[in-house]
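Hello Y.,

Per our agreement to keep a running log of every chain we model this quarter, I'm adding this entry. I've kept the format consistent with earlier entries: sequence first, then predicted structure.
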Amino acid sequence: MLDPRLSVIDERLKPIKNIIAVSSGKGGVGKSLIAATSALIFAKKGFRTGLLDLDFTNPSSHVILGAESAYPLEDKGVVPPKISGIEYVSMVFFTGDKPSPLRGQDVTNAFIEVLALTRWSELDFLILDTPPGLGDVILDLLKLIKRLNFLVVTTPSKLSLETVKKLIALLRSVKAPIIGVIENMSTGIYSVKEEIEKLNARFLGSIPIDPEIENALGAPEKILKTSFSQALAKIVDSIKA
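Predicted structure for the entry above:
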């Protein structure tokens, strides 16, 4: 039997022009920070922007944005609160700060529920912070969200690059659009650009390690002034192009 919520998801997402899934093959590469900061950059440039944190394993965008006390309104669904000009929804709205023991079909059901409940405005960009890893989670999102474009994050680590290769192969196997790959925490020692170009993927740029970013967490205006944000802003401009 067809789940009626699936048709609701299509209606909820219809007013959104661009949907970007920020993804990584493994955790610890700064995916959530890149997703949240990209949303801040788009909003500051005047784009109508939303951020959806679907990382049920370890949601952290509420900490990055200083949105721990934010909560949505309920009006024929969930109406996202605005944080620094961004319409914002996170799995923590539904699970709290407790670890989520979701597995298998429960994960799929949670995605469907959040996507079907959330009432987005007309947005230029909706940024998705996706759970790290490969497999069913990514395939679920591709089934549930049409027009989904992937932005892949890696670090200079060989382990991270190996998982990125597998993620790109997975996305290509299902013909999912890949915007390109960002190198985070760049040291300049290892040529990530060369490795990504060997995969015939678009290398978008590198973000050097920024020791100041930790002190800026929880304060969006401070985040936007960091060298991390400035490097990412140049990459975001290339995405728009």
